[in-house]
């Protein structure tokens, strides 16, 4: 059966061809000249101290549908930063997540912390788009890429000054993730094929990930108890979207999640 991931990847390939036809790669690459330096996404997460939050700007998703009606990326970005998010993640997929590169641009302009382009990256064209839109980091999903593609996109991201966050769900993809040189590794707790979420998924994989890697637990994090459990298991950072985006008062929700008093 075709999974949602297969469906998204198929749609993404069409989208990439359309984007290339509208704005050829050569022209897009021209915009790389004179860009300000990227912010250091890796160092921000690798720093000492309590578990770090990558707060996600996500309007909708295939599993949840519309998550938030009242949606202003710049305001949400500032709220996240003011309440102690270390980095931001911005969904840029339009078809399935109601995101956009414009949202990324607006969010990045509103804050001083590093920002990740969250999308289904299959082609180096998307890395250039990310950098031009202001991204400091990109997500690479091991389940969407062959080992060769993963390695190539990983190296190209680094060449562009982007930090790759390499995500896996399947434990069998771990060797390819480590072989490409990833030091920032995300374990998705949500199986993108079935949408099932299990927080213990990251915890079970923890011991198989080298100590010099920064480990990010992704998806399904809801409560301060979840955060404490992940922190105690040696997880360095959490990537959280839905449970924060659903709240009327996003700032207060971040405070509660991190167990820190309001600022
Ligand atoms: O909204 P959640 O359950 O807090 O999850 C955030 C993030 O992990 C999730 O959006 C995500 C993780 N990996 C992805 C890959 C593509 C799209 C989305 C994702």
UniProtKB/TrEMBL annotation:
Residue span, Indole-3-glycerol phosphate synthase domain: 5-257
Pfam families according to UniProt: IGPS
InterPro entries: Aldolase_TIM, Indole-3-glycerol_P_synth, Indole-3-glycerol_P_synth_dom, Indole-3-GlycerolPSynthase_CS, RibuloseP-bd_barrel
Gene3D superfamilies associated with the record: Aldolase class I (3.20.20.70)
GO terms (BP aspect): L-tryptophan biosynthetic process
Enzyme nomenclature, EC number: 4.1.1.48
GO molecular function, one term: phosphoribosylanthranilate isomerase activity
Organism annotation: Pirellulimonas nuda
Superkingdom assignment: Bacteria
Reaction(s) the record says it catalyses: 1-(2-carboxyphenylamino)-1-deoxy-D-ribulose 5-phosphate + H(+) = (1S,2R)-1-C-(indol-3-yl)glycerol 3-phosphate + CO2 + H2O
CDD domains: IGPS
Gene behind the chain: trpC
Pathway named in the protein's UniProt entry: Amino-acid biosynthesis; L-tryptophan biosynthesis; L-tryptophan from chorismate: step 4/5
Name assigned to this protein: Indole-3-glycerol phosphate synthase
Phylogenetic placement of the source organism: Bacteria, Pseudomonadati, Planctomycetota, Planctomycetia, Pirellulales
Family: Belongs to the TrpC family.
Enzyme class: lyase
Matches recorded under PROSITE patterns: IGPS
The keyword Lyase belongs to this UniProt entry's keyword annotation: yes
Keywords: Amino-acid biosynthesis, Aromatic amino acid biosynthesis, Decarboxylase, Lyase, Tryptophan biosynthesis
């Amino acid at each position: 059966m075709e999974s949602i991931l297969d469906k998204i990847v198929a749609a993404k390939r069409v989208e990439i061809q359309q984007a290339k036809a509208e704005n050829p790669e050569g022209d897009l690459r021209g915009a790389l000249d004179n860009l300000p330096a990227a912010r250091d996404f890796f160092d921000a997460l690798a720093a000492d101290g309590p578990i770090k939050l990558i707060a996600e700007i996500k309007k909708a998703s295939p599993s949840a549908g519309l998550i938030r009606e009242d949606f202003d990326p710049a305001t949400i970005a500032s709220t996240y930063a003011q309440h102690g998010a270390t980095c931001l993640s911005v969904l840029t997929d339009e078809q399935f997540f109601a995101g956009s590169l414009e949202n990324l641009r607006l969010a990045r302009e509103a804050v001083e912390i590093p920002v990740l382009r969250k999308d289904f990256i299959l082609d180096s064209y998307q890395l250039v788009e990310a950098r031009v839109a202001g991204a400091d980091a990109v997500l690479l999903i091991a389940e969407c890429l062959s080992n060769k593609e993963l390695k190539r996109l990983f190296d190209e991201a680094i060449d562009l000054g982007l930090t790759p966050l390499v995500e896996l769900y399947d434990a069998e993809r771990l060797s390819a993730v480590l072989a490409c040189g990833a030091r920032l590794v995300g374990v998705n707790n949500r199986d993108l094929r079935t949408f099932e979420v299990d927080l213990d998924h990251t915890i079970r994989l923890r011991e198989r990930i080298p100590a010099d890697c920064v480990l990010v637990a992704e998806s399904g994090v809801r409560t301060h108890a979840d955060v404490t459990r992940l922190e105690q298991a040696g997880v360095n950072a959490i990537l959280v979207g839905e449970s924060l985006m659903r709240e009327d008062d996003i700032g207060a929700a971040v405070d509660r999640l991190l167990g820190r008093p309001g600022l």
